[in-house]
Structures are given as C-alpha cells and as structure tokens.
Amino acid sequence: MENLGRVTPATALVLEALLAAESVWGLQIVKDVGKKPGTVYPILDRLESAGWVQGEWDSSEERKGPRRRYYRLLAEARPLAQTYVAAHQAKVSPPQSRPSPAILQGEWFGA
Amino acid sequence: MKMTEAVLALCVALAPERLREVREEQWKADLRDGPQLGISASSLLVGAACSSVTARFYELLHRCSKLLSHIKEGESVKLGLGMAGVAVILLGGAAVGIQASSSNAETSPVARTPVHDRPIGGYEGWWNSTPAHGGTADLPQEIVAVNTRTGAVVDAFNRATNSTSISDVNYAPAPDPSWPANSIIIIDTASGKVVEDFLVDERGVPLDENGRPLDAITG
Fold it and tell me: Has residue A84 been placed in a domain?
C-alpha cells in the first residue's frame, strides 16, 4: 500500500463513501459523494493503483450484459482512511468558539 | 448512440493497455445503469476520458521514475548503449543521405569523350540513360541536343538502336527564340519539346551552379 501524498477533500469524500460499506458500486460512490464522474473515477483509479482499494466485478447474475464494477477498501487501508476522513470533517466544520479575524484585527489596531 | 459508442471507444483506446478490457466493461455498465441514478451519459463519458488521461499520466510518471532509478542503480550503461544505437542509426541515415545527394549530382550532364567530328563527344544525362529498374517507357525514345550558342545539333541518341550518331537521327530542329541562351537543350524528337537544358561555355562544356566549367572542377 503506497502513501497517497496529498489527500484532497474529494478523495476524503470518496474514502468516506468506501468506509460506509464493505463493497460499493463505483457509480454509487459518484452519487454519494455528489461530485462528477470526471472527479471520482480518477480518484478510484488512483486508490486502486496505490493498493488502497480493490476493484471487483458484480457477481449478481440478474443483470445481463456488461458487469458493474465494485470497489472495496482494503482492511489495511481502513485506519488511515478513517484518519483522513476525520481530518477532512474537522476542517469542514470548525468549532464555533474560534475568534473571527475581524476581532483580532481590531485588537492589533488598538495595540 | 453511435456517438456515445465512438467516444467510449476513444476513452478505452486512451486508457493504458492493461486497463482497457476492465474499463470498457465497467464504463459500458455505467452508461447502461447511470440514468437510474440520475447520472447522464455525457457526464460519464467525461469521467471515462478523465480517468484514461489520468491513468496515462501516472503511467508515464511511473516509467520516468523507474528510468531515473535505473540510472541511479548504475544501469546508465544500458541507457548509454541505447543512445549509442540511436546515434549509429542517425549517422547511418546521414550517410545514406549524403550518398543519395552525391548520386543526384552524378545525374548532372556530363560531357562524353570527344570524337573526331565533335570537340565534345556528347552529353550524358537522364534523357539517354537507362534506369536501374530498366523501365524506359516514360523516357524519350529519341533526342537531339542543340547548342543554342550556334544552333547546331551537337548530339543525338536513339534508344531503340542505342545509337549516338547524329546522322542516324532524322530531325531538323527549328530555332526558337524561347530557347535559353548559351545552353545545350535536349529535344524529344517525338514531341519536338525541350525536355532539358543546361548552361555551357563557349567550348560546349557544361557549367556547374557557380558558372564554372565542369572540366575545371575535375581537373
């Protein structure tokens, strides 16, 4: 499993979707994340080539024709994925008690 | 639908070879089932294209880093040999080019050995030569060479009889003001047209592109 380097918010969202289930259909991830396939597909490719997720074919025999591609987050990647997701969520919803820059600026003017 | 298939095929072709089969089936299934989730075909095709381009980019990046690591590991000898091979090929190409250009130079008109009735024995060029492949159908079957300084016929050639004797050719060229001055012109007797011309000095010796007689160059 390779280091992902910089993890974008979109990658964190994809990881979050992957953490939510054992195996997720690629298009379902697109839907859950709320991003375009042009964003999600390359992220899934990157995660797969880095050894974080494993792609597998839909085993259902109900549907005829081409098979859906499902993605499963590998067990060894789950702890790190959870860390990334938590970090992303913390950035998205900052604590309410944090002082606003305007107040700080006012203090500096007064100093 | 055909447009969608064409774009999909393009996306598949763009993808790295090892991924093509998987991606083709995956994207076909996504195109079939995407509308159920409210995802349009165009959006999916853009996604497929992005996926292919990104995968290509990372593959290229991987190859570059692999090459760099090989160089670091001392495999630069192989790289050097490869580059030497390329250099040999390039030099070979240059040599062939030089050879070809010198061959072209040989097709310039050349004065034949003088005979008793002519100070210049005649002129050799494409018009009285036989190409290596033997096809002469497109070449003049009979020509005369006229010196426009004098208006005299100074050479002739009949391909059928392989004769260069002027008396064997029954053709009397009519002087034409459009003929180039101080030149030898080659006239195809079948059509009466000038098929070649080149400058000569007062002796009839062909001049090179710098205006020097060819015999002065060859010594």
Answer: yes
